[in-house]
Amino acid sequence: MSVHDASAGSILITGGNGFLGSLVAAKALVESDATIVLPLREPYTRERVLAPILTELAAEGRPPRAADSARIVTVPLPPHEHIDELYRSLRDLGVRDILHCAGSLSYFNVRRLQAGNLDLTRAILSLGTALDVRRFVYLSTAYSAGFTDCPILETLHDEPRNDPTDYTRTKREAEWLVARSGLPYVVVRPSIVIGDSRDGRYGGKPYGLYQLWTAGVRYLSMGFPRVLHVVAGNEPVNFLHQDAFTTGFWAAYRTLPDRAVMHLVSRDDALPTMRDLWTLWFSVHGGPHDVHFFDRLDTVPMDEVAPEVRLLLDFTAVNNEIGSSRWNFCRDRLEGLRRNGLEMTDASLETIAVAQRRFVADSPRLQRFIQRYEAAGVPTPRFVDRTGERARPPGARAS
Amino acid sequence: MNTDRRQGGCGSTRDAGDGATSPEDASTLAARPVDATELLLWALMHKFERPALEHYAAHASALATAEKRSFVTRLDALEADEAPLAASTLAAPVDELLARARGADAISVLIVQGLVLEHLGQAIYGIAESTEQASPASRTLAAVGRAASVSVTAIASAEIAARVGTHERLYAVFVDASEEVIAALDPLAEPVDEVFGERFGLRFADVLGEFAAGLITACTALGMQRRKVVAHLAGACMGL
User: Fold this and answer.
1) All domains of chain B in start order, with CATH
2) How many secondary structure helices (H) and strands (E) does chain A include?
3) Cβ-based contacts of B4 with chain A (< 8 Å)
4) How are the residues of chain A apportioned to helix, strand and coil, as percentages rounded to the nearest 5?
5) Cβ atoms within 10 A of the Cβ of B139, count?
């Protein structure tokens, strides 16, 4: 199946200190004999970055060996304007492929996004050109298309009518930088990555679904109000298990032709809606008496909403907006890989329940909440669909 | 705790005037909170308020308002024992928060202390003022504290606009200056609920809700986009 031989030469992986980069590094240790080069900036140290990579290896049933650690070489990452200082050491290490997984996930901090997603990508591309790399894989996002009513193609995107965040805009712009670099590239666009489909383990920050769960734990920690207002749409939300991410990412790196763009997403068939996810959440500890579902934040009557729930609504607003929209991702590339033997587990309510159980088990705060709440909660709330209510004037909205 | 104080605008000029000029019952003023948990709260607020005033005096003197100075003097006079605070689960996260608030330049003092932490104080005072579980002495003190804080934030907003600017330009500075200190709030959650929740009705989720509402209002008044401010608060509060 492989059209790209990773056995010769070293692999430079940026973002090895982050969640997805560390998963890719662990996968590289398992799937290749190559030396893995990780550029790091302070405050990250070699030990701090190696720990989650080796933990991931162990979780995959491969106890860490000295040889694994020895295959990881860390180098100091200079500021992007001095990135060419890395050239000589990377050349001497025999770097032939670059897996560019680094980036800023800030939603609206334009300075950080410019530095992390655009300036750094430009600098790494320049390094790749100097090294004459055989392959440059750019880790983007499925949401780089911005909001659109059309099917989302596996091509570079034009400007959308609107972007959910500046993050999605800068990822789209970075894809164009990659495409215009002249390097033999592959762009991989994952959807929302969640815990492993088999045991639910998750080493990332509380983004996406984890933000919703974490906000629920933190801001409803003294119990539910009698009526809980939530923004939750009826569209399927595309989650991707981390095991599917690593398998799909590696397959894209090794097998796709140059200049390919791939949506690394789950099939739509079994994906849950935001409402399904709330129902699943209440199954852990019961819920309020009534749950009122809205499809947009500006239709929620804030004068009816308890202050702590306003905070929950506010803090999850951007993700709710994304999760409540229809994202029609084309999956031709991934389906092609699957026809050729790629095995991955699509996200479904059942597999997400595995991730949720792990999250609950790993959260002492939630355990205490459940203990406190079980006596007072009702097992199955009454769900009220308030989709389509008219938008409220700003004065009637949150704060 | 569901009473919505935002209707009147926690940071509004009307509130500032009301708080600063409201008649105070002399006998209540003379009274001193005696409950141990209430005294712990005032020891905690003293730990925030005294350095804040010193920061203002050193870096942004306009923020050292008469109301704030008078209030800190009252907290000084309480001489609340800090030992129970130091022995409580609050000690470590409070020290961390204070360490992150020690900006040594005028801009960070204006934003971190004059805007962010003052709004945190207003949220705490607002809840303490309205809870029936607190003594009249504490409720009165909380009202004075809130009015003093409002006197600071009104000036801080104007100073920030004059020195940094508004809208997108300010947003970038605000995000960088405030992230660390906002990120230090979450570790306070369980200690606050444990120490003050049952006895005092002061719960972290309520405090954070009031704090976020007040800060968002102040930021949008300075031209920052609401959804961006909310995303920043959410990211910082949730460790993103």
Assistant:
1) 10-237 (1.20.1260.10)
2) 15, 12
3) 307
4) 45, 15, 40
5) 20
Ordered DSSP codes for B117-182: IHHHHHHHHHHHHH-TTS-HHHHHHHHHHHHHHHHHHHHHHHHHHHHT-SHHHHHHHHHHHHHHHH
Q: State whether the Cα torsion A14-A15-A16-A20 is positive or negative.
A: negative
Do the Cβ atoms of B231 and A221 come within 8 Å? Answer: no
CATH 3.40.50.720 in chain A: give the residue spans: 10-190
The interface predicted TM-score (ipTM) is 0.81
The structure's pTM equals 0.88
Residue A211: list chain B partners with CB under 8 A.
234, 238, 240
The runs of H, that is alpha helices, within chain A are 19-31, 46-59, 66-70, 87-93, 110-113, 120-131, 166-179, 209-219, 242-255, 274-285, 307-315, 317-323, 332-339, 349-361, 364-373
Closest-CA residue to A297 (of A353, A383, A233): A233
Fold of A10-190: Rossmann fold (3.40.50)
Task: Return residues 202-221 of A near B (CB < 8 Å).
Answer: 205-207, 211, 214-215, 218-221
CA distance A270 to chain B (A): 29
Contacts of B37 (CB under 8 A, 6+ apart): B195, B196, B199, B200
Q: Does B209 touch chain A (CB under 8 A)?
A: yes
CA–CA distance, B112 with B114 (Å, rounded to integer): 6
Judged by DSSP in three states, A242 sits in helix
* Residue-by-residue pLDDT tens, chain A, 399 positions: 455 555 579 999 999 999 999 999 999 999 999 999 999 998 999 999 999 999 999 999 998 889 999 999 999 999 999 999 999 999 999 999 999 999 999 999 999 999 999 999 999 999 999 999 999 999 999 999 999 999 999 999 999 999 999 999 999 999 999 999 999 999 999 999 999 999 999 999 988 899 888 888 888 766 788 899 999 999 999 999 999 999 999 999 999 999 999 999 999 999 999 999 999 998 887 788 899 999 889 999 988 898 778 888 988 888 888 988 899 999 999 999 999 999 999 999 999 999 999 999 998 888 887 777 665 666 788 999 998 887 776 544 443
Q: Cα(B200)–Cα(B36) distance, rounded to whole angstroms?
A: 11
